[in-house]
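Support request, priority: normal
Reporter: lab tech (M.K.)
Component: structure prediction queue

Hi team, I submitted a job for (S)-1-Phenylethanol dehydrogenase from Botrimarina mediterranea yesterday, and the status page still shows it as pending. I've pasted the exact input below so you can check whether something in the sequence is tripping the parser. The sequence length should be 245 residues. Please let me know if I need to resubmit or if it's stuck on your end.
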Amino acid sequence: MSFDVKGRVALVTGANRGIGKAIVKSLVDHGAKKVYAAVRSLDSAEPLVGECGAIVAPIEMDLQKPATIEAAAKTAADVDLVINNAGVFGSADPFADDVFEKLEYELDVNLYGLLRVARAFAPVLKKNGGGAFVQLNSVVSIRSFSVGSTYSASKAASYSITQALHDLLKEQGTTVLSVHPGPIATDMADHAGLTDADPPSVVAEGIVASLAAGDFHLFPDKMAKQFGEAYASYAKAIVEAPMEV
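Reply from support: The job had stalled in the queue. We restarted it manually and it finished. Here are the results:
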């Protein structure tokens, strides 16, 4: 289902920096009527408001605190586009001393956080005519790497849930987009030691274009496109194909 962001009311989690900040700016540039900048600390969104103006409305939201998500869904009752961008990177391999601690943290934000956001906002989107739900996954959701394999596991799980949302939310007229970036020039990429990264704007602009095209998958940057090309036939034949269970 095609979705045009022009004139829409959107909410973006993790909106104060990196990909989230770029998404907010792209939505504003493409004519969104209002963008809720969902952040853990309202002060962190002040520079974004300064750049974009009153069209951006900061709202408190922490993916590890369900009460803030539920409160945000009540405050942002006019949204018809939700982009769940917030995520964490713990960087542990299976034999690291802190592997269980890192995995628990990443699952709580990257997987359970997605579930909390989807469960809170799906009824809002339905009430407002369907709208769209976008989940930031990763290329590592389809190919794990030994370094940071706990992050890969959390993103593989979130991608699996995103597929389920794609099927379930179709019934209420909500289009779902699964975004799979490779290395992007953000603080998270720096922490992971990734170089030669594309700017966050390629993800933001890709989201706007993919929503308009009615796509389910987006592989926005140069590394991600290589994954997407190799994965395309499987995605079309298995992931995106109607199946009876």
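The mean pLDDT is 94. The longest strand covers residues 34-39. Let us know if anything else looks off. Ticket resolved.
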